[in-house]
Design brief:
single chain; alpha/beta; Rossmann fold; seven-stranded mixed beta sheet; 6 helices; 7 strands; disordered N terminus
Length: 201
C-alpha cells in the first residue's frame, strides 16, 4: 500500500507536466485568459462593506460637533421640522427632556423652549395641558413621572388622543449627545429620530 502511494505521488505531477508541455496556447489567447480571471475577482467600492450592508462607512463621524447644547438643539429641531410626520401638524405629546449625563443642564428651560418653538412653527398640535393632567391622574402618575415602557407610552398616548410623542435625552460625557425621538403612538414605531453631539455647556 505504501509503495503504491509513493508511485502515484511521483507520477502524478509528472503526468501533468507532460500534458502542460503538450498544451501550448497562443500568446493572445493566454493574455485574454489572464484578463478574464482578473475581471472575475470580487471588487468592493470605497465606503461600502464587503458583507453587503448598505450602511455608509463613517456615517457616525460625519455629524457636526457643536460647541454648546444650543447649536445641537437648533440642528435637531431643524431636522425635526423637516421630517415627514410633522408636515400635517399632528397632535403631539411633548415630553420633558431628560438628563442622564451626570452633569447639570437646565433641561426644564430647554423643554419649554422646544415646545414653544414647535407650537409657534405650526408643525404640531399640542395636547391640552388639562387633558394631560386628567389622564395622568387617572393612571396614578406623578406630575413629572416619565414613562419608559413602550406599551404604556402607546396606551397613554391613545388616551390623550395624541398621534405622536416627542421625547429627548442628554447623555454622554464631553462630548455629550442630544437625542430627540418621535414615536408613532398608534403603532409604537419610531417615526423619526436625531442625535447631535456637542462638547461644552
Amino acid at each position: 500500500m505504501n509503495e503504491t502511494m509513493k508511485t502515484v505521488n511521483v507520477q502524478w505531477p509528472r503526468q501533468w507536466t507532460i500534458k502542460w508541455k503538450k498544451l501550448r496556447l497562443p500568446p493572445l489567447l493566454m493574455g485574454a485568459l489572464v484578463l478574464l480571471l482578473v475581471g472575475c475577482a470580487p471588487r468592493y467600492q470605497p465606503g461600502t462593506s464587503p458583507s453587503g450592508t448598505n450602511s455608509p462607512a463613517g456615517s457616525s463621524s460625519a455629524k457636526t460637533m457643536y460647541n454648546g447644547i444650543d447649536g445641537a438643539m437648533r440642528a435637531a429641531v431643524e431636522s425635526l421640522l423637516a421630517s415627514e410626520p410633522l408636515q400635517t401638524a399632528p397632535v403631539t405629546l411633548v415630553q420633558p427632556i431628560q438628563n442622564s449625563s451626570g452633569d447639570y443642564f437646565p433641561t426644564p428651560r430647554y423643554s419649554t423652549q422646544l415646545q414653544a418653538g414647535l407650537i409657534e412653527s405650526g408643525r404640531i398640535t399640542l395636547v391640552p395641558e388639562a387633558r394631560v393632567q386628567a389622564v395622568r391622574a387617572s393612571l396614578g402618575l406623578a406630575t413629572n413621572q416619565v414613562l419608559v415602557d413602550p406599551a404604556t407610552i402607546v396606551q397613554y398616548g391613545r388616551m390623550l388622543g395624541a398621534q405622536y410623542q416627542l421625547s429627548g435625552k442628554i447623555t454622554g460625557q464631553a462630548p455629550y449627545q442630544l437625542s430627540l425621538q418621535l414615536m408613532d403612538l398608534q403603532s409604537g414605531v419610531i417615526a423619526w429620530q436625531d442625535v447631535e453631539r456637542f462638547v461644552s455647556r
